Amino acid sequence: MRAVLCESLGDPSVLKIVDMPAPTAAPGEVLVRVRAAAMNFPDVLMVAGGYQHKPALPFTPGMEAAGEILALGDGVTGWSVGDRVIFGKRPGAFAEQVAVPVSGLAMKVPEGWSFAEGAAFRVGAQTAYHGIVHRAALKRGETLLVHGATGGVGLAAVQLGKHLGATVIATGGDDAKLEIVRSYGGADHVVNYRTGDFVAAVKEITKGRGADVIYDPVGGDVLEKSVRCAAFGARLAVIGFTSGGPSKLMSNHILIKCLTVLGVRAGEAARYDPSYAEDYKLTMPRLAAEGVMRPHISHRLPMERVADAMHLLLDRKVVGKAVLEF
């Protein structure tokens, strides 16, 4: 079988497509024929050596994918050969066949969804759900400000916020992409933070009150500015820093407005507290079946163009998700 291989750290050009022996399903595992795998910003960071999880070289990148079960290892129950499944593998998803522990199987691909949509669902949906429901406890009628709304985790947050009854303000850096967030994601308001002042816009939309929950995968000065349009008692959910660096929040702003700053790591939280994993297992299939957080896929590329897919992320070309198809 073929797989993407990272033998040295660097930019996406270091990646190779290689032939290697197909894996087998060990006890407690299933063997999956991968049909599609989604690209995530941590994949790019991992290849560059800039992610908190640093796998030993060489490794196959990729965090989420979808495909068909080819074989069951001893002791596996509840799954059948031929099932269309969504799974997580950190790293290792960018390969034609992958052996996956049963715990890594997230759910079956929803009826009517493509493999590409299934592959693009798990990371964005779980991150949004953990950040907005578990951490920030968004309530119906509140205002949710979503930064980086044109990306996968941002668009999922917009969709979930609307589903939960919030007024959603979405920000991004491109008008055409934001129009997709409005039409596909259902955002009530969109603000281009490259050409406009999102702080002023949020204050105007909320009549001076500010946003109750701020969901931020961008970081940098975007999060720093956000405290100026946060409501009293607002919750700031820190998802990441695609801007390239962390933020420097002023403690006086946190104090005066009684703000709560929340770190959001959906996968890591589930490893520390299995109750989160159980909630994902029960809730994600239901939300998918209801059409909540259905991924938008702007780019589909063959495995051979994995470096191009990473550059699409780095160059901010993707709306929702870019997917490799096998």
Chart the SSEs and their pairings.
Blueprint: E1 2-6, E2 15-19, E3 29-38, H1 41-48, E4 64-72, E5 84-88, E6 97-101, E7 105-108, H2 115-119, H3 122-135, E8 143-146, H4 152-163, E9 167-172, H5 175-185, E10 189-192, H6 198-205, E11 211-216, H7 220-226, E12 230-238, H8 251-256, E13 260-263, H9 266-272, H10 274-289, E14 297-302, H11 306-314, E15 321-325
Parallel strand pairs: 8-9, 8-11, 9-10, 11-12, 12-13, 14-15
Antiparallel strand pairs: 1-2, 3-4, 3-6, 3-15, 4-5, 5-7
Helix pairs in contact: 3-4, 9-10
Task: Write up this protein.
With 326 residues, the protein is an alpha/beta fold. The chain has two domains: 2-119 and 296-325, Quinone Oxidoreductase, Chain A, domain 1 (Alpha-Beta Complex), CATH 3.90.180; 123-267, Rossmann fold, CATH 3.40.50. The protein has eleven helices and 15 strands. It has helices at residues 41-48, 115-119, 122-135, 152-163, 175-185, 198-205, 220-226, 251-256, 266-272, 274-289, 306-314, and strands at residues 2-6, 15-19, 29-38, 64-72, 84-88, 97-101, 105-108, 143-146, 167-172, 189-192, 211-216, 230-238, 260-263, 297-302, 321-325. The chain is globular, with a radius of gyration of 20 Å.
